[in-house]
Design goal:
alpha/beta, 2-enoyl-CoA Hydratase, Chain A, domain 1, Rossmann fold, 2 domains, 6-stranded parallel β-sheet
Length: 419
């Protein structure tokens, strides 16, 4: 049997001899919308909730939170119709600012803007990139019900209309991305993100959970404090193509989108697997280990204790987190030591990746096929793989005949439901 898994912007082929029990765990294969621009136009013309763009006629300024290079958001389809409508409302293009919502991710320099935005948009509208550490660019709004201090990008706050554009998709501890999250986390100060992400330790902060998820509901509270007026969210298929678009009041967008995402992305699984062969989904889901870890977490949910996960993730930009690397370099020599230090120290985004990886790697053997140097991978307490097929062959050679093998080609977008 032959399988192809996404790897960066290409694919890697693996072979599994006939006779093995192999399941492919992936979202339903759904055809892309044949006319994606028309789908966006329809969503904007038929907003959900009690908010329509026409209500902002007379506004003088607007800001749109747009996702950075780590998210496969189809900006080339979502933004042009939205920007046109804002101009029709009377907002001049020089007063419509696009703010790249990086959260704690590295700040994108202007030369990278073309990686995520059409050139026609870059030439017509002001664009800036958020920096969660630039205190002078943040304004304090108070605290949420869960005592999260809300520091928000002041440029986003100093406009008449605040919008978000992104995708609704599964998230390992937020439950789902989408809605106000692009602004509530993407344009927040680091203190805000640290406090919010610390809630990932709560038992209800889980993949696919929304209503009772403290981390996600804290995000909703932040969104209300910001006053996010309008959201445009896409739902994508396995090939990162538009299937549907929902626009309108942000909470209503989530309420309408989550059932659709559950229908597409949840996959029933009847038993745990001895081996999981996993790709986060290729670029940009494997742009760095910070993003690729999510695929590991999803696969670990259905891997037997003591089993093996082979993770194919290019990680062309390394870990994607200097603070994670620095924390690991300060003496993290075992998973037990990671757990001890993580629980003793104040929660910090970046080092939290060390905990998330250790949480799963302490239960299963993790093999990593990537573009990172083997000695660097070993310092992260993972096992590097030089040849992916050799790794597959070696793992299979140690399995009993009745072993179960799972293949997850788009793990970051897959919600396995163990029955």
């Amino acid at each position: 049997m032959e399988f192809e898994l996404p790897y960066a912007k290409a694919r890697r082929r693996i072979y599994i001899p006939d006779g093995h029990h192999v399941d492919v765990i992936a979202p339903k294969h759904i055809k892309a919308a044949t006319k994606p621009l028309s789908v966006v136009e329809h969503a904007l013309d038929n907003p959900v909730g009690h908010q329509a763009l026409q209500e902002f006629r007379g506004a003088k300024s607007a800001a749109i939170a747009v996702n950075d290079k780590t998210r496969p958001v189809p900006h080339e389809y979502l933004l042009p119709p939205l920007l046109t409508r804002l101009e029709v409302l009377g907002i001049a293009p020089e007063h419509i600012t696009l703010i790249i919502a990086t959260g704690t991710h590295p700040v994108m320099p202007p030369e990278e803007y073309a990686w995520i935005l059409p050139q026609s948009i870059i030439e017509r509208y002001p664009i800036m990139c958020h920096d969660c550490l630039a205190q002078d660019d943040l304004v304090f709004l108070g605290e949420t019900r869960r005592q999260t201090p809300v520091w928000m990008n002041r440029h986003y706050m100093n406009v008449d209309v605040r919008l978000v554009v992104g995708n609704i998709e599964p998230h390992q501890f937020m439950g789902f991305s989408g809605g106000v999250k692009s602004a509530a986390i993407g344009l927040a100060g680091k203190a805000t993100i640290n406090r919010n992400h610390a809630m990932m330790m709560d038992d209800n902060a889980r993949l696919g959970h929304y209503d009772n998820n403290p981390a996600r509901q804290d995000v909703e509270d932040i969104g209300k404090m910001i006053g996010v007026h309008f959201a445009v969210n896409a739902i994508l298929n396995n090939d990162k193509q538009i299937v549907d678009v929902i626009a309108g009041e942000p909470t209503a967008v989530m309420q309408a989108g989550i059932p659709r995402v559950q229908q597409l992305n949840q996959v029933p699984v009847d038993a745990l697997y001895d081996v999981m062969i996993v790709s986060p989904g290729g670029h940009p889901k494997d742009i760095n280990l910070y993003q690729a870890q999510k695929g590991l977490a999803h696969a670990a949910l259905i891997t037997k204790p003591g089993g093996t996960i082979l993770l194919l993730a290019a990680c062309g930009e390394g870990t994607g987190s200097e603070s994670y690397e620095h924390w690991m370099a300060q003496g993290a020599r075992s998973y037990d030591e990671i757990f001890r230090r993580f629980h003793e120290e104040e929660f910090q985004v970046g080092p939290h990746k060390a905990f998330q990886i250790a949480r799963d790697a302490a239960q299963v053997k993790v093999l990593l096929y990537s573009d990172m140097q083997p000695d660097f991978v070993e310092r992260l307490l993972l096992t590097p793989v030089a040849d992916v097929q050799d790794a597959v062959d070696a793992v299979l050679s140690m399995l009993p005949d009745a072993a179960r093998i799972g293949v997850m080609p788009v793990a970051n977008a897959t919600v396995p439901i163990l029955s």
